[in-house]
Design brief:
With 163 residues, the protein is mainly α. The strands form 2 sheets. Strands 1-2 form a two-stranded antiparallel ribbon. A two-stranded antiparallel ribbon has the order 3-4. The longest helix has 19 residues. The protein is elongated, with a radius of gyration of 21 Å. Helix 3 packs antiparallel against helix 4. It has one domain.
Length: 163
């Protein structure tokens, strides 16, 4: 008996907790972030291109399998913190108007600069898209029956042949 294992790129635990999966996804995203860190901080590349790099290289690694996640507020916060770190690297520091010193961007300034949906909204959109996909499946599919809650059926006589 094991406490957790990796199956098809997803971390499964005996507690059925998604926290370990999110941790491993954030670690993988962090590795991707550090591999393109020089591109994201370069002044030679436009901000739009940096955002495209983020959305095509880093974000898919973090969001792999997110359609099955049920997020708590703490997990949503961890995802937002990761995204804000990457966005701060993309948009760079700003000068303070009063003191003239360099400072980090605040979260509300990041939200104004990054007009696309944040990572939590992307997860919610993907979950809704997956639910719509499952809703169009037929009644013979097990995933559809779990979605609509029709799990009762008459059991056959004798030893069960399948689950």
């Amino acid at each position: 008996m094991v406490e957790g294992f990796k199956y098809l790129g997803t971390t499964l635990t005996n507690q059925n907790s998604i926290a370990e999966e999110i941790k491993s996804r954030l670690r993988s995203g962090n590795a991707r972030y550090h591999s393109v860190q020089n591109l994201l901080s370069s002044r030679l590349i436009s901000k739009n291109l940096k955002i495209k790099i983020y959305r095509t290289i880093i974000l898919p690694v973090v969001l792999y399998g997110c359609e099955a996640w049920s997020l708590t507020l703490q997990e949503e916060r961890k995802l937002r913190v990761f995204e804000n770190i990457v966005l701060r690297r993309i948009f760079g520091p700003r000068t303070d108007k009063v003191t003239g010193a360099w400072r980090r961007l605040h979260n509300d300034e990041l939200n104004d600069l990054y007009t696309l949906p944040n990572i939590v909204w992307v997860i919610k959109l993907r979950r809704m898209r997956w639910a719509g996909h499952v809703a169009l499946m037929g009644e013979e599919r097990g995933v559809y029956n779990v979605l609509v809650g029709k799990l009762e059926r008459k059991r056959p006589l004798g030893r069960p042949r399948h689950r």
